[in-house]
Amino acid sequence: MSRALRNSPLVSPETREKVQRIARELNYQVDRSAAGLRSQTSHTLALLLFEDSTTDNSQINPFFLSMLSNISRAANRRNFDLLVSFQQLSKDWHYEYEASNRADGIILLGYGDYISFTDKLAKLLSEDAHFVIWGATQPGIEAHAVGCDNFAGGRLASEHLLGLGRRRIAFIGDITDRCPEFKRRYEGHVAALAEAGLEPDPALQIDAQGPETVGFEATQRLLDSGQPFDAIFAVSDLIAIGAVRCLNKAGLSVPGDISVVGFDDIHAARYLSPALTTVRQDTSAAADLLVDKLLRMIAGEEARTDLLAPSLVVRGSCGGRER
Amino acid sequence: MSRALRNSPLVSPETREKVQRIARELNYQVDRSAAGLRSQTSHTLALLLFEDSTTDNSQINPFFLSMLSNISRAANRRNFDLLVSFQQLSKDWHYEYEASNRADGIILLGYGDYISFTDKLAKLLSEDAHFVIWGATQPGIEAHAVGCDNFAGGRLASEHLLGLGRRRIAFIGDITDRCPEFKRRYEGHVAALAEAGLEPDPALQIDAQGPETVGFEATQRLLDSGQPFDAIFAVSDLIAIGAVRCLNKAGLSVPGDISVVGFDDIHAARYLSPALTTVRQDTSAAADLLVDKLLRMIAGEEARTDLLAPSLVVRGSCGGRER
DNA sequence: CAAGGGATTGCAAACGTATTCAGGCCGATC
DNA sequence: GATCGGCCTGAATACGTTTGCAATCCCTTG
Q1: Tag placement on chain B: N or C end, fewer CB within 10 Å?
Q2: What nucleotides of chain C have any atom within 7 angstroms of a protein Cβ?
Q3: Which of A27, A86, A284 sits opposite B73 (nearest CB)?
Q4: C-alpha of A281 from chain center
Q5: Are B272 and B317 in contact (CB under 8 A)?
Q6: Which of residues 206-245 of A touch B (CB under 8 A)?
Q7: pLDDT tens digits, one per residue of B89-106
Q8: How far apart (Å, rounded) are the C-alpha atoms in residues B240 and B229?
Q9: Rounded to two decimals, what is the model's pTM?
């Protein structure tokens, strides 16, 4: 009897005890398919990691893997199962999961060009789609997004560099519309410069998005340009790591000659020598927020965009005080 | 009609076309709960990542995350969904997933003390449990395991070090029964020594298992012991990274003074300077093998232990030829 | 021309649960 | 003492598929 197992108040305590005891003895497990069919609910969330089709699929940004593990824990904590898929986002991801009753809601994770399907997302809003997305807020889907305050994060990084006396800060990261979150970081960077009475130099901004090798190449381009600079603000730790490798190869010392600050605080940031100073995004809090918001949406409540405060983690790659 | 959609030969091509076209037009999706209930199958695999309870839960070995992403792709490629859980392994993980019809089979992933529940695994064998496990073969569950040939891997690493003229090779890694795979690597190491006419020195073996910090501490212990050594074979890349950091802190150069070789080939191995020479486990092939074996078991076929051949990836951390 | 057989198709049952509904029991109230 | 009402329980239904089975159709063969 379903009521007894689910602690319904409609059933007397004695009966409940008895049923539950016997269920335990028989190693009885509720059949999820049957329960799902009857209640039209799967008690399952789906996590879709969409990847930039340009990058090598076998390599995933550790930041997202960290998100993944925290999301899994967050879902489990709430007694929801988590379905994980790394597939290229299919045309009908929403129908595939929700309409088929495989998942009650969907979490979207990924950098890059989801702007290309923003219109699709907007369309889903008018239907009964339950999904949340990590990243920058897009017009039209504000309520579904959870993101880090990228503007504040960018400002934090550049303020730190300026505070250490750096004046010619290169920004390595894509600021086109393809990467709204990177763009916001750049705006924070510019704001920090402005506070210090400085103008951003367009020659010091290099587009880059992707794995470590992209950071390496972008830095090479920067060096080749001959522009003088004394610091690098990399839009992700992966890119920062590539930048450091490139600088070292060119005979430049970090932080002696060049300060480098990253973004994300992936674990590898700690292993570098010097350890990477970076702007930390709290993946555990982000995961909680994403899952909470999604469950609230499923429950029919309205929700708003949530912004997470980033924090600066000072390590060795910028010089100044070492920790 | 189910038959038309599933391309059953019982239905005529014209009818099939027609049904499928209309289904597409209506955006029809098969209800997985109903299908699962009727067919008593979920078309879903569960991936259980059990963690050593001693380590900080928030940090997962990148090697397993790489396995995870490849397993997800492998499952999707076969049109199976993947349920992921990082929970501490519960007492009844098998019943929770299989008996409840949430998953058709289970993939177990994790280092360490699953020896503690080997007896439980053995018991499940007598029942209708469908599961595979990554790691060292345990007596009694051979048929369910997929693992790397750790003996060969250990030998590969030490042969490389010996070939570079190193003679006092420290082995950092737990060789107790808790970590059967590490033990096999040590045996491979010893075999390589024997080939070169050398005896293993027990003073050069330090127990260690876990994240980077554990490698750091173990190396510190090695240094404190005063034993001379000219190379380190670390049982995992994470430990190798900790070892390098410790050596550098002690003023020793890698590879100038000490050669270091790791195991796994996690992505971070590439980012180090010098980049880490390591024994690579092909996570993509491993994932394919795990999923294949599990699906075969579900289909009722018998399977045997699969061993994956490791390969040596030479980078800069051992000296000699640099790549 | 009738019968037989193969190829399709339509019908109906069953999967195991959640939930509605009616009924039964018991205590309290008048 | 009878009626009413509250609390609990048991039965019955519906969820949307898959699949076995019976029925139909058409073509071939005797």
Answers
A1: C
A2: 7-10, 14-19
A3: A86
A4: 8
A5: yes
A6: 212, 241, 245
A7: 666 777 789 999 999 999
A8: 15
A9: 0.92
